[in-house]
């Protein structure tokens, strides 16, 4: 059932639904059926997603849910491909992505799904091939409104993105259980056990089904590459079949067999005499008999009920008359009213006959009825496909064009079912050998009766033949194109007085004609004889026979095996060449002297050196929640590179206040491995290393108080040891710590000496380069006095406070501070309980700020400005701060500025 | 023509960097040997179709980076393997000693029913041999694995090794399927038996009611 028709009805005139397919969309723990339509409009393609009731027949059955434009932002890939025992006939699972949306779909096994995916892939590769022509998709806009009004859609799309990401992760982990799952599937499809809901449709389809698209399609190399880019789309078998067909010469050899073809219009008579003169006229018994009859029964019963006792009578007459020196088996009989075809084979060849199918076409009254038309049998003999057609075409002299038309109708309408139901049916012309017999009813025209009879008496068949309608029509290529007929060396077979060899003596006095003919099409066919049989007198026609020697392809199994293996090898090779692949400009990156808040970047260029477009993504390593350490980013971290294209990825290192503490003390190092994963392909490991220069930014007050030297002069072991000690146990260190960190002192002292009258202090930003100089000076102790403007130093001070791993008011005191913020005395009490170095820092800063306020006339600062700026730096919540809390922290700090 | 592709298996090559894993893979899939060593950084795979007992089997063979520092990452690929080929270099004693470590990792990370074999590569380099065939044999026995000495360079025993491990995987999978089918069959038999019984019961009841 072609559901694209229903979709087409919903579309605008200029839009075209190329192909439709039913699918299951995977949701959290269930799946729902959707209809997908690939819609084209002015060379742009989009996938329309419909919910649908029953099988969609009309526009009312479908309702549009979403549209996925096929642009450069689009991608479709096979998922879960090689994860498990892949059984032929399995459903196809694909992931479609567009921008940030992803959908995971299951398409049922079968040619429709494959066709759909092929078409989508084709459209997609077209887009990828010419990235300059950006599609606009203006025609889609009109649908957008309709989609929006349907809230339900977004509901299912939205959680899906999240879900499909999860699926990705899970897929890997659930590998083992997955495998079991697939084994279970094998069983359920073999037996009639109830199946769990969800993995539907798979079992409905026989696993024996194989795929197709084959003979009809010509596979060019680029075509192949595309097909192979989707390994599970099941086209591999077809490629092999196709190649086998193409290379048939390599593993087959010809062997001659004799085919006896006979045609006889019996004019409704019952057999009255032996048919031996007709059927046993050859010296040696033929290997195969194909015998056609016309007008077997002219009764109404035969016409209306297609039922006649004559079938048996004539079959018996034939069986009795077959060559006596061999035994024959009746392989097949097919009859349409009076048109009958019987096929016998010599017993010893029977085992080499296979794939026998029949069909018939009526071309009689109303162009359909069986009083005229054709029956046909096709079969495979060894490795050759043979089709025999017996036709009875339209009568009357002047109707030759009607006969031509009958021939064409038969050729197009007659179709043989294939063993594999997914394969398109076979037509007559698709066979290696076509043998066409029958009462074709072509007459002799432009010559009067006497002249005709005169030529016959003179045995001048050559001249007579030039008036034959069939010959003329063939010469004009109006019918039987590609067919051959042997020289006619016998007198016309129509029309005789029944029971005699005398020409028709009735009133009508028909002009004699070669109505009964035998033609062939194909290679290696040799006609041994072509004759009529005057001795047979039952009908007003004479039977005609022809013996052919036909070269039949036999398989050399040794050579077949070799060819087959060669093909498989080549396909493997092609497939390996089609695995997505990139070349990387560099595999190892080293970032030298990484510093706090100093951005460093290196370029990684990717070049798609494979034969298919490629989707890449940096993926997480096991037990990690992100693809990289927090100080490292890859920009972009995923993308798409068309074949032959390239892309530059920036690997950026940036240490901020959240990553600095561990790096400062050596708990972490600049070291990471990125995994660059190609969809359906390999993974590349990229190693990132570097050295980090520790900084006072992001180092705790406690640690800094224990450093008399600049942080970069400290041995890393000391830094680590300090970081692991707690501010509460001061006793453990031998040396007396500094009251406050010297770095803090340097900044505050600098401001105190140079900036008490500075306008806009703490409000105007400093310069980035000056900050870096100040940082380096603090961390390395050189030079003695700080560089940079007052604003830069002021900003450095704020950054310093902001970067402290434990704020000046430690997290553990935060709640208390909020609770007593209204009472100055209580606030002071809390401060007095802080660890010594924190208390010192707090008091020192408060004293400094009070000093600034004394000069408010010149520097313009007031309490509220300073409180706003500093409260949030000194008092930080371990969680997120809300507005009420913020006000309280300000109230707290205000007590210390008055 | 019989059905061509019934199954797909995933095989994994493991061993120190430089033992010849990539060369073995290329030899097997492409019939070529390229003596230059570009160390694999990441994981790569190739496909190959082979015939076993008339059944066409597609194998996907994964080649991993052997370097120490990548091993935490490469371990996650073990889980997906149905067959593993441990490779050492017969001219490099250390690579042979490291097999124990590789086997240990596999024990921890790979599925229980994973099939393994041991291959000593570079068998063509007889003059620089550091590991005797007997030593290889013995190690393989300890782990209950089959053993081959092979050479990617001369092609000796390369397809034999890959095909053997695939046969083992196929056998193991068949056992799985058979077991499953067996238990299902007996389940079905039981169900059928019960149904029969209950219909008999009905029958008895009816006769009683008469
Ligand atoms: N003589 C010899 N050399 C080999 C053989 N196989 C690999 N090699 C060499 O060993 C080196 C490392 O091989 P490669 O396949 O890259 O090792 P991998 O790191 O395990 O993938 C290469 O330079 C090859 O030339 C072999 O069978 N015989
Ligand atoms: Mg390698």
Please give a structural write-up.
Chain A: InterPro entries: Endo/exonu/phosph_ase_sf, Ig-like_fold, INPP5B_PH_dom, IP5, IPPc, OCRL-1_2_ASH, OCRL1/INPP5B_INPP5c, Rho_GTPase_activation_prot. Chain A: It is found in: Cytoplasmic vesicle, Phagosome membrane; Early endosome membrane. Chain A: Its EC number is 3.1.3.36. The complex is a heterodimer of chains A (898) and B (210). Chain A is an alpha+beta fold. Chain A folds into four domains: 4-190, PH-domain like (Roll); 216-225 and 579-692, Immunoglobulins (Immunoglobulin-like); 254-555, Deoxyribonuclease I, Chain A, CATH 3.60.10.10; 737-894, Phosphatidylinositol 3-kinase, Chain A, CATH 1.10.555. In chain A, 33% of the residues lie in helices and 24% in strands. Chain B has a single domain (7-174), classed as P-loop containing nucleotide triphosphate hydrolases (Rossmann fold, 3-Layer(aba) Sandwich). Helix content of chain B is 46%, strand content 22%. Chain B has helices spanning 21-30, 71-78, 93-97, 99-109, 133-142, 158-209; strands at residues 7-14, 42-52, 55-64, 83-89, 115-121, 146-149. The longest helix of chain B is centred in the last third of the chain and has 52 residues, at 158-209. Chain B is globular, with a radius of gyration of 24 Å. Residues 1-5 and 201-210 of chain B have low confidence and may be disordered. Chains A and B meet through helix 5, helix 7, helix 16, strand 28 and strand 29 of A and strand 1, strand 2, helix 2 and helix 6 of B. Strand 29 of chain A pairs antiparallel with strand 2 (42-52) of chain B. Bound molecules: guanosine-5'-diphosphate and magnesium ion. Magnesium ion (MG) binds next to helix 1 of chain B.
